[in-house]
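Teaching note: in complex prediction, the entire set of molecules is handled at once rather than each chain in isolation. The prompt given to students was simply: 'Predict the structure of this complex.' The entities are:
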Amino acid sequence: MNRIIVCMKPVPDPQHWNKVSMDHETQTLKREGIPTIINPLDKHALEAALSIRDAHGGEVLLLSMAPPFVTPTLREGLAMGADRAILLSDPVFAGSDTLATAHILAAGCRWIGEFDLVLCGNMTIDGSTAQVGSQLAELLDLPSVMHVIDLHRKEDHLLRITQKIEHGYVRLEAELPLVISVRKELNKPRYTPFTGILAAESKEINMLSNEELHIDTGLIGLEGSPTKMAGLELRRFKREKERVEGSPEEIVQVLVDKIHRYGII
Amino acid sequence: MNKNDHDGIWVFAEQRNAELHEVTLELLGKARGLAGQNQGKVTAIILGQGIKPLAQTLLNYGADSVLVADNPVLDPYRLIPYSLVFEKLIKEYHPEILLMGATFMGVELAPRVAARVRTGLSAHCVDLKLDKDGKLLQVVPGWGGGVIATIACPDHRPQMATVMPGTMKPLSPEERKGEIKEIEINLPDKDLGPKVLEIKREKAEGLPLEKAEVVVAGGWGVGSREDWKQVEELAGVLGGAVGTTRPPVDEGWAEEGQMIGQSGKTVRPKLYMGIGISGVMHHVVGMDQSEHIITINSDANAEIFETSDVIVVEDFRKILPKLIQKIRERVER
Ligand SMILES: Cc1cc2nc3c(=O)[nH]c(=O)nc-3n(C[C@H](O)[C@H](O)[C@H](O)COP(=O)(O)OP(=O)(O)OC[C@H]3O[C@@H](n4cnc5c(N)ncnc54)[C@H](O)[C@@H]3O)c2cc1C
Ligand SMILES: Nc1ncnc2c1ncn2[C@@H]1O[C@H](COP(=O)(O)O)[C@@H](O)[C@H]1O
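The expected output is the structure of the full assembly:
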C-alpha cells in the first residue's frame, strides 16, 4: 500500500457554538469569530492512515474542500504527520450539499490519480450528515465501509475490517482500493510532536480550483445540489420551569405527587 | 432522476436475521400519515432471505403493498448488493419518496443509493412534513442540535431521508390486506464488495431506552460509579430505563447505547428525569420531546432548567435516597 488519501474537513470549533447567530435576511448562519478545527473523527482517520504508512511505507495525502482561510487547520494535519495536503477551493463550490461535495472530492481523488485507500470520518460535527464517505465511494465506483472500529492489513491488497452495528459487530474482508469511514473507537490520534509543527511549515499545500478539476458546474455548488435549504432557525427550548423548594423531605413529597399525577406510580 | 411521473412513499424495511428493526414500524406509521395527506400509497421494501413471512407484519403496520426481494445474495446485508437492488427498483417503479432509518445500516446504505440514482438525501431527520404542493420537508438538527434546518429536494426523485429511530410513532397493528410482490434478483456474484467473515451480536439487555415510559438520565454531576447506582435504582423503582450524557460513558459508569442526544438516542418518554446534567444542546435534542421533564442540578443557572417542567436546585445526594425510598413505599403499598 503506498498512497492513502484522508478526507479532512475543517469545522467550526464546538466550544464556540454558542456564538452562532442567524442572518435572517439571507437565511444563513453567521459564524464570525468561531475558530476552525479538524473535524474530530477525521483525526482518527488520519491516525489510521499514518499508522499504516509508518508500518508499510508510502504517503498520506490530506484532501479537503473548503475556503482558503482554513490552511492553518490543514497545517495541523501536516504537523500530525501527513505528507502533503490538497485544498479544493473555488467560489463555485460554495453551497454544495453532500452529493455535490462528494463530486468535488471525487474529482480531487481522480486528480491525485492512483491511490490505495481513502479514509474519512464517519461524520462531521457541524453538518453531521455521515453521508460524504459513502457518496464519494459511489462516485468513484469503489466499495465502501462505514462505522469502522478496527482495521488491519492482511496481505498487500487485503484489509480486515471490523464494522460496528447495533449490539455487535461485523468482520469483513475487503480488497483495495476502497473508501473507509471511521468511528472514534478505531484508535487514539497521536499528539502532534513539536518537530512535526516545524516540519509542517515546509510541507506542500496544493490549492486547486475548478480550472484544474473541470467538474461540470451543474453538479456542484448551490445550483448543483439536489437538496435545498427551505428554512433555518436557531432552536430554543422552553418549558414551565416550576421550581420546587423546601427541605429535602418537602421536595421529595412534591416530586412523588407529581410523578403520581403523571400516571406513573 | 427527473421528478415527473413519480409517486408513492417507500419505506425500507430493515431486518437482520429476519428480525425487523423497530424504526421500520415507526417509518410506516409516519408514511401512512403523509400518504393520508396526498392520497399516495405506502410501499415497504424488504431485502434478505427467508423474509417473506415479515411482509404481512409490514402490511399490518401500515404498508399498502410490499416488494420482497428474497435471495441468498441479499443475506446477510451487504452494501453493494443492497444498493444495486435499490437502484433497479427505483428505476423501475419511480417512487416519489424513499425513507430509511438512521441506523447503522440505513446510514451506510441511503447515501450510496442516493448518489447512485443522483438524488438528494437528508440525514437524521427528526420530523417530516409535506408542503402545500406535496413536497417533502425534512427537518434536521445541525450544529449539535442548536440549529434546526428544513431541507427540501425540489427537482430530484425520489426525495430521500434517513430518520432518527425513536422520533416517530408506529401505528397499532391491525389485520390489513395488501399486495405482496416478489422481485427477481439477478446480481453478478463478483464485484459485490467486501466479504462478510463473521457477525457477532449480543442480545440487548434490559428495557430499550427508546421504549421506556420513564427515563432517568444521569450526567457528569453524578460524580462516581458508587453514586451512579442511585440513578439506576431510581430508574428501577419507576420501572424505567437509565439514560446518560457522554461523560458517564467515557467514565465507564454507563454504556454507549444508553447515551441520549445528538450522537446517541432520541427518547420521548412520559417522564424524563435528569440528574446532574448541565443541558448542552448535544444532549437536549435527544430528550426535549419528553412529555414531562424533571431535573435536579445543584447549579441554579444550569441550562437544563430551560428545558424542564419541574426543577430542583439541590445536591442530588440529598434528594435521591429519600425519593427512591418514598416511591418504593408507594409502589409496594
Ligand atoms: C460532536 C459531539 C457530539 C456529542 N454528542 C452528545 C450526545 O449525543 N449526548 C450527550 O449527552 N453529549 C454529547 N456530547 C457531549 C456534550 O457536549 C456534553 O459534554 C455533555 O452532554 C455534558 O454532559 P453532562 O451534562 O453530564 O456534564 P456537565 O456539562 O459536566 O454537567 C454536569 C452538571 O452536573 C451538575 N452537578 C454537579 N454536581 C452535582 C450534584 N451533586 N447534584 C446535582 N447536580 C450536580 C453541575 O452543576 C453541571 O450542571 C457531544 C459532544 C460533541 C463534541
Ligand atoms: N468538505 C470536505 N472536505 C473534505 N472531507 C470532507 C468534507 N466534507 C465531508 N468530508 C469527509 O466526509 C466525512 C463525513 O462527512 P459528513 O457527511 O459531512 O458527515 C468527514 O468526516 C470527512 O472525512
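Point out the following to students. Chain B touches chain A through 89 residues (CB under 8 Å). Chain B has two domains: 3-182, 209-332.
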